[in-house]
Amino acid sequence: MRLTIDHRTTYRFTAPQGRVVQLLRMTPRNTHDQTVAAWNINIDCDARLREHRDGFGNITTMLYAEGPLSGIEISVSGEVVTSSSSGVLHGTFEPLPAALYLRSTPATHAEPALAAFAQAEVEGRARIAALHALNTALHRRFEVVDGRPEPGLAVTAAFARDTATARDLAQMFVAAARAAAFPARYVTGYCDILAGGRATPHGWAEAWVEGLGWVGFDPTLGCSPEAHHVRVAVALDAAGCSPVAGSRLGEGRECLDVEVQVSGQD
Amino acid sequence: MGKAAFDEIMGASSADGARPELRELCRWLADTPDGELRRRQQSAETTFRQLGITFAVYGESDAGERIIPFDIVPRVFLADEWARLSEGLIQRVEAINAFLVDIYGEQKILRDGVLPPDLILGNAQFRPEIAGIRPPHDVWAHICGIDLVRTGPDDFFVLEDNARTPSGVSYMLENREAMVRLCPELFAKFRVAAVDSYPDRLLETMRSVAPRGCGGKPTCVVLTPGHYNSAYYEHSFLADSMGVELVEAADLVVDDDVVYMRTIEGRVRVDVIYRRVDDDYLDPLVFRADSMLGVPGLIAAYAAGNVAILNAPGNGIADDKAIYSYMPEIVKYYSGSDARLPNVETYRCREPQALKYVLDHLGELVVKLVDGSGGYGMLVGPTASSAEIERFRAALIAVPERYIAQPTLALSTVPTLVEQGVAPRHVDFRPFVLTGAKGVQVVPGGLTRVALREGSLVVNSSQGGGTKDSFVLMDEPRGMTQTMSGAGGTMTQTLGPGQG
């Protein structure tokens, strides 16, 4: 498939800012099933960009802009050619051992209810089947809602609800898989088959299966990612690979507006 | 504690009289009336109070700032003792550096099965965010404060490897200055290695690890969390003595992956940062998004090789209490030979066998929290009440992986001026080891902490500990240069990594 992505992130400030420094995790890498044909990051003001690689292997971009700034707009556009491998990843850049991803974070700490839920799903199933069962069970348990996820909502609180965003589902999967002793991580990226054309980047999960490697699971869709997903960044939880980590020097508040358009062609 | 402790001045037992090399010191102690010693001690403490060398005790809301008590009787290391101790310290610090290079790089030590991988990968002190970054000149642990205890002339044990932001060096310097002023006769009797070159050595260390290509004279700064920090005096003291700027995070700005300091003349490029700020508060974009503290972009500048940070971010994995018990294996792995400085035997309560032993011997052991520091959350079995022991027993059974236990050692003592006169008190020791691009050096002195309560083994300043000057004697005639120096010492319990 050929996926065309347009992702616009706009910050408006209620007072002019002296300077803005941001860390962007917005650039995908090539894998065996994902080839980045074109990729551009454009900033609507005079900004200096520097490319880096973080500890998880993600490509990051440092953005430095001098004020006075009343807002800043980051436009990402690109084209990625994908192929399907039933969710099994090949050719990803892995600087850290998979076992690192057994570690929990405050947002993904599985309290007893979620851990017990995970245990019930994986019990008696072979490894890959266990993870698929977990993915399906999470997908069925919640009504998926659009919109921006609640900042800082941890999996324990999310698990007690009836509805969940893509981020919360993916973080619950990550926490549940770890509780069942699978290394697991959060993935941000894009997907062209989300109901309602969600206006935010997408989030799903990957779990490590001995002998197979990293395998993707998308509890929002209830399946493994096929050729409809573009992986951008991974981390221990959603906050660790959010597209923008920003800081600004100045008074006032900020308003964030995000718009994502993904279209796929066979 | 059962058997008699080794007294560093008096020898194995005070009945035999002083150690031959230290008879002069003993005579000085006998000849100087207690009242005179007390007067000098008070004079030193008055100076410390005026200088503002104070600390705040956690959990004492009304206490405000206190000075750490100073003891007028010095602790002395003989030249050959010191030389041997220094070799052990250098070996240990070289291994710590090699470990950090490896663990944030290729992780050969994990692949070779020397350490259980989950010990590192599951440890919050291992920071995946900075994995793959190579600090300038591959130096990670520039300033180490290795805490030691002593049980005999050459029997030193490492208690903790403080490889983050060890504090206390200002006490080493101020205590010496007080001793030179108040007890000049001791410096006439003994050839004591000077410690006052420490700020120069530190500055030289900083300059040596400046990024290649910064050209000419690198700009160095000391980064402090601010004047509310309990070690603020030391931060300003060190910046002052080195003649470099003392800055807070808000004084620094990163642009285009380069760090600048704001000055009245405009931005000045910064090449080397001696930070006394914890990792969590270095860069909010990388470590703690919820924190407004720190310098946004600092880690990017560091990753780009444009600034050196002392000590390197991520060092906590080297001095973590859970790693400590593996240090003998780590030293052997990287140095190729056995560790010259042994650890204190440590029971890892996460292991069922060890836990059983610990529960059966609580009255004899020291039990510590794996993630505790500063002497808090610690059980000293031999002096604990039965209620305290039972409280720890319950805690150990509930969460054994949070605890380690160690035997109580017969810690060495040094004569100390107390209310009743001069009496032996237990001591520990923190020498300071500097690593720059050209190698490792041990500063000939250090921080001796003394447990002022009779029989107490807890030397932490927050728990009623005091300090002493630490003399390192020189063999050579006065004035000869020393090639290698260090400090050796004795003492007890825990001192937290990352203090200050």
List the topology elements:
The complex is a heterodimer of chains A (266) and B (500).
Chain A: E1 2-27, E2 34-43, E3 47-53, E4 59-82, H1 112-122, H2 127-141, E5 143-144, H3 155-159, E6 163-164, H4 166-179, E7 184-191, E8 202-209, E9 213-217, E10 229-235, E11 244-249, E12 254-265
Parallel strand pairs in A: 5-6
Antiparallel strand pairs in A: 1-4, 1-11, 1-12, 2-4, 3-4, 7-8, 7-10, 8-9
Helix pairs in contact in A: 1-4, 2-4
Chain B: H1 23-31, H2 34-51, E1 54-56, E2 65-67, E3 70-77, H3 79-103, H4 108-111, H5 117-121, E4 143-152, E5 155-162, H6 169-182, H7 184-189, H8 198-208, E6 220-223, H9 232-242, E7 245-247, E8 252-255, E9 258-263, E10 266-269, E11 272-275, H10 298-303, E12 308-310, H11 316-319, H12 321-324, H13 327-335, E13 347-348, H14 352-360, E14 365-369, E15 378-380, H15 386-398, E16 403-407, E17 413-418, E18 421-430, E19 432-436, E20 439-442, E21 447-451, E22 465-472
Parallel strand pairs in B: 3-22, 6-7, 6-11, 11-12
Antiparallel strand pairs in B: 1-2, 4-5, 4-19, 8-9, 9-10, 13-16, 14-15, 14-16, 17-18, 18-21, 19-20, 21-22
Fold and architecture overview:
The complex is a heterodimer of chains A (about 270) and B (about 500). Chain A is built from 4 helices and 12 strands. Chain A starts with a strand and ends with a strand. Chain A has about 270 residues and is an alpha+beta fold. In chain A, strands 1, 2, 3, 4, 11 and 12 form a 6-stranded antiparallel beta sheet that branches. Chain A has a 4-stranded antiparallel beta sheet with strand order 9-8-7-10, covered by helices on one side. A two-stranded parallel ribbon of chain A has the order 5-6. Chain B has 2 domains: about 15-345 and about 410-470, no CATH class; about 345-405, Dna Ligase, domain 1, CATH 3.30.1490.270. Chain B is about 30% helix and about 25% strand. In chain B, α2 (about 35-50) packs across α6 and α3 crosses α13. The longest helix of chain B has 25 residues, at about 80-105. The chains are: A alpha+beta (about 270), B alpha+beta (about 500).
